[in-house]
Amino acid sequence: MANKKKEWFDWLKALLLALGLALVVRMFLFSPIVVDGPSMLPTLHDKDQMIVNKIGYKIGEPERFDIVVFHASAQKDFIKRVIGLPGEHVAVKDEVLYINGEPVEEPFLSEQKRNLGPYQTLTNDFTLEELPGEFTTIPEGHVLVLGDNRGNSTDSRMLGVISMDQIVGKASLIYWPLDRMRIVGE
């Protein structure tokens, strides 16, 4: 009888340890997110399920074109692409991204730009000064984010620059649906 109690107690310890470890991993290292809406098309699709790396930005900074998840409000997280970094000036003119006055290629938009009709635009012209906050350069501890589906995205053009404190982590792996499983942002 004592042997059965010990075995039961060992199973309980293992279960509690597994639950505790899962909680730590989810809270501090990785968590799942489901893409909600078309704002990152064609890169990410509505209902894509992804893993968010929460620890990467605790030891490093976001890089241009990283896909990040951030708290847009207390109830809602958004997923967008980092376009501008601290200290930079960002503008878009005639479908060209300019960082500090220099054109920067956005390879993830190439196909969308090729498919534009003669009087269509993918990204309406803007400068950093025209965005909420009216900054001349992106402040330290902030980034500028845009959705890949520029005509249907609530991003820094409406929200202003995003504080690093709002960023949950980098979204880099689609794990569902299986036919879309891949690493993104590479």
In short:
This protein has 4 helices and 12 strands, in the order H-E-E-H-E-E-E-E-E-H-E-E-H-E-E-E.
Summarize the topology.
Elements: H1 2-29, E1 30-34, E2 49-53, H2 56-59, E3 67-71, E4 77-84, E5 90-93, E6 96-99, E7 102-104, H3 110-114, E8 126-127, E9 142-146, H4 156-159, E10 162-163, E11 167-176, E12 182-183
What does this protein structure show overall?
- Its EC number is 3.4.21.89.
- The protein is an alpha+beta fold and 186 residues long.
- It has a single domain (31-183), classed as Umud Fragment, subunit A, CATH 2.10.109.10.
- Helix content is 22%, strand content 30%.
- The chain has helices at residues 2-29, 56-59, 110-114, 156-159; strands at 30-34, 49-53, 67-71, 77-84, 90-93, 96-99, 102-104, 126-127, 142-146, 162-163, 167-176, 182-183.
- The chain has four helices and twelve strands.
- The protein is elongated, with a radius of gyration of 21 Å.
Largest sheet: 8 strands, antiparallel
**Low-confidence sequence ranges:** none
Structural class: alpha+beta
Give the terminus-to-terminus CA distance: 57 Å
For this structure, the CATH topology is Umud Fragment, subunit A
The arrangement of helices and strands along the chain is HEEHEEEEEHEEHEEE
Oligomer: single chain
Q: How would you describe this structure in keywords?
A:
12 strands, 186 residues, elongated, 8-stranded antiparallel sheet, alpha+beta, 4-stranded antiparallel sheet, Umud Fragment, subunit A
